[in-house]
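Dear colleague,

As promised, here are the two records you asked about, laid out in our usual form so they can be pasted straight into your sheet.

NAME FIELD: protein one
SEQUENCE, THEN STRUCTURE:
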Amino acid sequence: MNIVYLIGAGPGDPGLITVRGQQCLASADVVLYDHLVPARLLRHARPDAEKIDVGGAAPQALEQEAICYLLAEKAREGKTVARLKWGDPFVFDSGGSEALFLHEQGVHFEVVPGIPAGIAVPSYAGVPITYPGGGDTLTFIRGHEDEGKTRASIDWTSLARLDGTIVCYAGPQQLKTILAALVAHGRPPDDSAAVVYDGTLPIQETLDGSLEEIAKAIKPDERRPAILIVGRVAALRQHLRWFDARPLFGKRVLVTRPREEAADLVDRLEAMGAETIEAPMIRIVPPEDYGPLDEACAQAGRFNWIILSSAHAVDAFVERVLAGPRDLRSLNGAKLCGVGPATGERLARYGLKVDLTPSEYRAEGILRALSETGDVRGLKILLPRADIGREIVADELRKQGAEVTEVIAYRTTAVEAEREGEPDIYRMLLEHRIDVVTFASASAVRSFVRVLGTEPAADLLSATIVASIGPVTAEAASQFNIKTTIMPALYTIPALVDAIVEYFQKQS
């Protein structure tokens, strides 16, 4: 169906897009987006969708005309088009112009509202723009004109006299002028106000105080647009601020996990206020030869124990069981040992319950837990593992008389070089723009060192906090002269995040 969806993406936080907006984005053949739209939102688009950056959220007239023609052209090619726009398409934006053009061209379109910056940003700053006793009016002002655009025509005298809240989209060239105009036309200089830069983002910065104080506090060389809030409600920020009061607010944390499994760590860090930078150091790929794994899966029912040390091992093992003529009933009485809660959760997705979870999520803990179930002598044990997994478990079990079958279930490969559009980790570390580097596996450490070089990696991380998920990972780091500063007592992602939070709380 040839249709254009005009989608409001919200003012920055990728979580503020609506469910409908995400659905329309996922269905699109072509995505045209403002460069202010967060890159993470584009992951909701189909991998094969054509993605076109059309520049600023408020383009000049000729640029806007070109965008309109491009929308119509793509739709006439029979494609579903998503026009992803900063904020809301119909609030101080060109969405109305684009919709009217599409109407005149006979192109079907749908408008998917987004959360306007004037609504979301004050909320993230802890300012309720309406509140009992805060006045009876709420006024939004356009104040972000670019060079060449018609300046906003505002009756400052009437506006200054309104008893209520003013929310202004203030460009860097207009902010001081707007503050001065309000005071000059009758707004009390001691009236409460707040200026919010980079609203809803982890780098959000808020100035609050009186109109007079804020005018003095604005830096002469400030080039960022802002949301200006004027009115008694702005004084409530000191009681209601939440976004920038979270324990990791303002901290940049590097996440080195494979992209397909980074979501849990990223979500937990961002919930604590951190800005996450994803730089996968390893990729999970199938084994070069499925033969040994398939043979083990075909005989799974003959084993006494199947030890699964990671969620990847679970996926690889179960998928190959189901790839053949059998189903999970072929496991018969084989007991499952799952290392760590994430492994148990992944087994549960397939309807499988764990028989044994070691209290310590490492090789030594597995051996101790199995020994406590009884004599392992003569037991048949299957160990589907990574190609570079530790061999301690298999070796020690064999010493105790167990018959151990090891098969490669998956391989980990290094991400050798940064791809176009990926963050320049070397430069960010060199310029001390990363506060914490997280490692959730020894293989991630080794790949990190391979990408940056042994000496540069050790040198750069000597001035950066390193958080390792457990002793095996920390030991791998130490082999390259990388010191681990943060390590949780439990070797899990939630515990790792808690340990990072605890570290910074102690520092403050």
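NAME FIELD: protein two
SEQUENCE, THEN STRUCTURE:
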Amino acid sequence: MKKIVLAGMVILLCASVPAFSQIRKIPKAVEETFANQYREASDIDFKDQLVSVDVHFLLNGDTMVASYTNKGIWKETLKRSNYDELPQEVKDGFKKSKYADREVEDVTVMYLPGDITQYRLKAKKNGVEKKYLFFNPKGRMLRESITL
């Protein structure tokens, strides 16, 4: 009896796998908006997140990720960076913050609608206590959030 139940479960699981593996077509509005926004991009890879679409690409040697709504509205573009490439104002802002004693282990430049640029620093105190710190180009800390 156990073998029959197990076999039935296996068949049911196998029958449901194709439903999960179906990928919908990337919305045309996203493809068009991206193509107009980043004409010089290469190595383009669209990732469907169901409620949004992330586009991974290279631009001028930088690895970037742009996020769009399903209707093709641009939400943000993220670019990996490092501490040495930060504007001096942002470095000074970090050094003056209450988190100055922490090690910066990750830096991301965030390009947002309205021609807004922010800098996200992942600062850790130890292996467990990590925070994202968000700065504007003038070095003012805008907010912080806990991260894993």
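A couple of things worth noting about protein two: Confidence is low (pLDDT under 50) at residues 2-22. Helices lie at 2-21, 28-37, 88-96.

Best,
R.
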